[in-house]
Design a protein that fits this description.
It is a single chain. Helices cover 21% and strands 22% of the residues. It is α/β, with parallel strands linked by helices and 390 residues long. Strands 1-2-3-4-5-6-8-10-12-15 form a 10-stranded mixed β-sheet, with helices on both faces. The protein has a 5-stranded mixed β-sheet with strand order 7-9-11-13-14. It comes from Aegilops tauschii subsp. strangulata (Goatgrass). InterPro entries: F-box-like_dom_sf, F-box_AtFBL13-like, F-box_dom, F-box_dom-containing, LRR_FXL15/At3g58940/PEG3-like.
Length: 390
């Protein structure tokens, strides 16, 4: 995916500030906003850092299953010029399937075609992507921090969610500055829980970075895919014990602030989860992996203090891609720390990588490997259990 033009939208290219001096770095990862403001960080350089982080978040989000600008091939199409509307003669089940593959705005417009189409929009599983509601259909890429929050898009999302009875095939909400629309944000989640949504991508456009996600999301039992970006995860200690994600196969956590227990809670309450993505984290987190279903764990530009694979019988791949720790945006408390990966029971693990020299230790049962090779290494085709010998 191409990254959004986060630099040129804030300051002209010929005025881009030089990198911060080593004695006065513009820390981002691992530093609360209050400290940054108190220390008088340069606002332009700070905005660049925030938008850099957002670009990584957007790159890790899944593609929308619908597009406002699809590429269609008409080569070989058989055209019949008798003027008969054959599409409208198709069974309702096929027409609803067609509508579910259209952007919400285009699907709603079909009610004007004929009386045959009017009830179909309300009975088809809807795909709602807020960037498709922009005048250019989102062609310019995601909004940056300095761009105004699109109030018209926020209002349109509210109208669509209120008008359609559900269910929703997918809902991607990434355009609104949620701090400015807290009331709408809470109502959106209430509606999606009540009407049912299968795929939800929900991203807060900061600031603030630590806006707390409503706990309502833990009540959405219809989800099969969930991505959360730039939130403070609700205090799971206060979430009802019966709350769970019974159906999600894929969970993505992108640059959220969360505690160890919050991550453990989400894994424990996702009994069929197969794919877990953790992209960045505003706080150091220890991952203790106990899952009977997880097959792939992907960590991108993130810092986990410890990764402990306790019992993951179906885990096949554990990837680490990128690292914030050597960036000028990273606080020393994280930059100078090392992390440990401990593999307990993972009999189907085939791919493990990458490991960075001097920054990570790998432990397999009672054996500890300190990475000292000058290049990144990847271990593949390994099978690990409690009795493994390296």
């Amino acid at each position: 995916k191409p990254s959004p033009p986060f630099l040129t939208s804030i300051i002209p290219q010929d005025q881009t500030p030089p990198p911060p001096a080593m004695g006065d770095p513009q820390y981002l990862v691992g530093s609360p906003r209050s400290n940054l403001e108190r220390d008088g960080r340069d606002s332009a350089a700070f905005a660049i850092g925030i938008n850099l982080m957002l670009s990584f978040v957007y790159d890790y989000l899944p593609y929308s299953p619908v597009s406002p600008t699809p590429t269609l091939s008409l080569a070989g199409a058989l055209w019949v010029s008798d003027g008969v509307d054959r599409i409208s003669r198709l069974p309702d089940v096929l027409l609803r399937d067609i509508l579910s593959r259209l952007p919400a705005k285009d699907a709603a417009r079909t009610v004007a075609l004929s009386s045959r189409w009017r009830p179909l929009w309300r009975s088809a599983p809807l795909a709602l992507v807020d960037s498709h509601l922009l005048p250019d259909g989102g062609a310019a890429g995601q909004f940056t921090l300095g761009a105004p929050s699109p109030r018209a898009v926020t209002d349109a999302v509210s109208r669509v969610l209120a008008a359609h009875p559900g269910p929703f095939r997918c809902v991607h909400l990434t355009c609104s500055t949620m701090e400015e629309h807290r009331g709408e944000m809470a109502r959106w989640l209430d509606v999606l829980v009540a009407k049912g949504v299968q795929e939800l991508v929900f991203v807060n456009r900061p600031w603030p970075l630590d806006l707390r996600l409503p706990a309502t999301v833990f009540s959405c039992s219809s989800l099969t895919r969930l991505y959360l970006g730039v939130w403070r995860i609700p205090d799971t200690a206060a979430v009802p014990r019966g709350a769970r994600f019974p159906n999600p196969l894929e969970l993505g956590l992108c640059f959220n602030a969360m505690e160890d227990r919050d991550l453990a809670f989400m894994l424990e309450r996702s009994p069929v989860l197969e794919f877990l993505v953790i992209m960045g984290s505003q706080t150091g987190v220890r991952l203790r992996l106990v899952s009977q279903s997880l097959r792939c764990l992907q960590l991108g530009y993130t810092y986990l203090e410890d990764i402990d694979v306790v019992d993951a019988p179906r885990l096949e791949r554990l990837f680490q891609l990128g690292d914030f720790r050597q960036s000028e945006l990273t606080a020393p408390s994280i930059k100078n720390c090392s992390s440990k990966i401990k593999i307990g029971r993972a009999p189907n693990l085939r791919v493990l990588g990458y490991l960075r020299p001097g920054e990570q230790e790998l432990g397999i049962t009672n054996t500890v490997i300190v990475v000292t090779m000058p290049n990144l290494i990847c271990i593949s085709a390994v099978s690990i259990n409690n009795n493994a010998n390296l």
